[in-house]
Amino acid sequence: IKTIGVLTSGGDAPGMNAAIRAVVRTGIYNNLRVMGIKRGYAGLLQKEIMEMDVTSVGETIQRGGTILQTARCPEFVTLEGQKQAAEICHEMGIDAVVVIGGDGSYKGARALSHQGIAVVGIPGTIDLDIACTEYTIGFDTAVNTAMEAIDKVRDTSSSHERCSIIEVMGRNAGYIALWCGIANGAEDILLPEKFDGDEQRIIDNIIANRKKGKQHHIIINAEGIGDSNGMAKRIEAATGIETRATILGYMQRGGSPTCKDRVFASTMGALAVDLLVQGKINRIIAYKDGEYINLDIDEALEMQKNISEYQYKISRILAK
Ligand code: ATP
Fold first, then answer.
1. Does residue 181 contact residue 166 with C-beta atoms inside 8 Å?
2. Does the beta carbon of 105 lie inside 6 Å of ligand 1?
3. Best exposed site among 81, 216, 229, 282 by fewest CB in 10 Å?
4. What is the ipTM of this complex?
5. Beta 291-296 vs 118-123: how paired, if at all?
6. How confident is the model at residue 320 (pLDDT cuts 50, 70, 90)?
């Protein structure tokens, strides 16, 4: 392998720049040429590819988002698109591509590997919803951003003795909601993996807490459940307690990455290049049981995970 490409795909996540920077600088350290591919698979198909040097990733480690930009590319899901992408890689002399993204992006990477291009995947998503790993780039920053925002909403909620429903991101997974629920001491946490739609239980909980003298009632609702505004109206009608919904939205995805995201992303970026240098191809980098590991891409895509039952249980006990 002489030339590697690097791209970010799917949703952007803080820390992706640290990973790109590590791929570029570790690649150059190992005498490889490194090509930056813009806008994920879409940019690959459009040949938006430029050579990167050590200075092209200067001043990026502290920046949120992704300097390579990202996109979703339906064209690449077709075999024709994948063949075309591989041809472009051959034409540009790219032997291997480091893909920073989620499960969807890994499926794209696997498809590219079937066309003869070596790939390595790095987990990049704020949602933590990649089965093979306990860490994904951006989750730490996103939960810290959400936690701080929820603390602020809580001040107003307590002052006005309101019930607040705060909706956090996470797509169909409840990891951000669960972590914020614990970190912010929420009275109720609604996770797509757990919530059965029983709003009466929440209403009973609000009334019981009010009787106990609690000044506020914070409900963290996950994006995968949604309908926070509708829920707020129904809760207010049933309890007579003023209830407001706050949807945190994209502010959770942006911002300067935390130290953890910078260090983990840097390590994973370097590991991706190390694997390629060792000839270990079509692997996904993951973090499990306190160690960085790598798995075969097929194996990684077959894995499934769920939120921790124990974490969920303690979140309920601590909210009493
Ligand atoms: P996030 O969870 O942050 O959204 P993701 O990587 O799961 O990240 P997706 O939108 O699912 O995001 O996938 C990104 C891109 O990967 C898609 O736009 C598409 O180009 C490619 N991709 C997804 N699934 C496949 C597939 N089955 N085959 C080939 N390419 C795919």
1. no
2. yes
3. 229
4. 0.92
5. unpaired
6. confident
Residue pLDDT, tens place only, 240-281:
999 999 999 999 999 999 999 999 999 999 999 999 999 999
Residue with tokens 């040097």: 53
Active site members: 127
Q: How far apart are CA 183 and CA 175, in angstroms?
A: 12
Indicate whether this model's pTM tops 0.80. Answer: yes
Q: Name residue, tokens 């109720």.
A: 188
Residue ranges of E strands in the chain: 3-8, 33-37, 49-52, 96-101, 118-123, 163-168, 188-190, 217-222, 243-247, 283-288, 291-296
**109-119: burial string, b at 16+ Cβ within 10 Å, e else:** bbbbbeeebbb
Spacing, Cα 121 to ligand 1 middle (Å): 12
Q: Which pLDDT tens digit goes with each residue over 21-33?
A: 999 999 999 999 9
**Ligand 1 binding pocket includes 81 (Cβ within 6 Å):** no
Cβ atoms of residues 84 and 43 within 8 Å: no
